Amino acid sequence: MIKERGLLIVLSGPSGVGKGTVRKELFSQPNTNYEYSISMTTRNPREGEVDGVDYFFKTRDEFEALIEQGGLLEHAEFVGNYYGTPIAYVNETLDAGRDVFLEIEVQGAAQIREKAPDALFIFLAPPSLTELKDRLVGRGTETADVISKRIATASEELEMMSLYDYVVENDEVTNACDRINAIIKAEHCRRERVEKRYLSMLRGE
Ligand code: 5GP
């Protein structure tokens, strides 16, 4: 029987929405059974961050050499630094039948959508529509200019959603995590995925 390939899970969303916090909470839960892909970056480590745990910290030259070699599944420049996903770990882990979880910004997610359309794309969205409206209009003290800038940002964020399979509102970290775990469970039951396994079994593979 062929071993089913793991699921590539991509969590992304606008900057400041809390992707990192949600990811850390997911991986602090004891029953999490997907693997975190540690990213590479050229930014400096923050206080308490450990090389090989939080990120693989690289120089720009090292990072660019890796891009040249095709060693990254995706990469993007974000606030003046490179971020990218090492491809070898992702492929080895998926081939071993384990799910891989990426927490990345939106440009990188768009690249994966092209390269791996069967991945699971989850968009972490800002709190709730009501809160969004409150934030946009503010307390009535914001200038029309500030409000229109906020609306423009929110509209861009909404447009980005169209690349994703699911949208999870980050109203509370634990709620967001519950929804993400439910989506991953459901995704494993998706007919297209399950059917492939049954058919290959019937073929005696
Ligand atoms: P930070 O510098 O705060 O750790 O991360 C900045 C942004 O980079 C966050 O939005 C984070 O999701 C994103 N990021 C982290 N790793 C990767 C990666 O491997 N690829 C891409 N495209 N973005 C990443």
Automatic annotation (TrEMBL):
Nucleotide-binding keyword on record: yes
Q: What is this protein called?
A: Guanylate kinase
What catalytic reaction does the record list?
Answer: GMP + ATP = GDP + ADP
Could you tell me the gene encoding this protein?
A: gmk
Q: Per the annotation, which location comes first and is thus the protein's main one?
A: cytoplasm
Q: Which UniProt keywords apply?
A: ATP-binding, Cytoplasm, Kinase, Nucleotide-binding, Transferase
Question: What family does the database annotate?
Answer: Belongs to the guanylate kinase family.
Give the transmembrane region(s): none
What GO annotations for molecular function exist for this entry?
kinase activity
| Keyword Ribonucleoprotein listed | no
**InterPro entries found in the cross-reference section:** GK/Ca_channel_bsu, Guanylate_kin-like_dom, Guanylate_kinase, Guanylate_kinase_CS, P-loop_NTPase
Superkingdom in the source lineage: Bacteria
One Pfam family assigned to this protein is Guanylate_kin
Question: What organism does the record attribute this protein to?
Answer: Lysinibacillus contaminans
